[in-house]
């Protein structure tokens, strides 16, 4: 049994995956910057 994915459905899936990856990347960079800032503040004391 072969299942076909229509073009608009595949495009929607790729768009959702791209947007989710962008959101996760922004969140990860924000967390990383917060950790670096905390380490730098601890080193100043």
Number of strands: 0
Integer average pLDDT: 93
User: What structural class results from the helix and strand content?
Assistant: mainly alpha
Q: Strand-and-helix sequence, N→C?
A: H
Which strand-content bin applies to the residues? under 5%
Shape field: rod-shaped
Rg (C-alpha, Å): 20 Å
Unreliable segments of 5+ consecutive residues: none
Distance between the terminal alpha carbons, to the nearest Å? 66 Å
Main sheet record: none
What portion of residues is helical? over 70%
Organism: Nostoc favosum CHAB5714
Keywords: Membrane, Transmembrane, Transmembrane helix
Transmembrane segments: 17-36
Protein name: Recombinase RecR
Written overview of the protein:
- The chain is mainly alpha-helical and 45 residues long.
- The protein has one helix and no strands.
- The chain has one helix at 7-44.
- The termini are far apart.
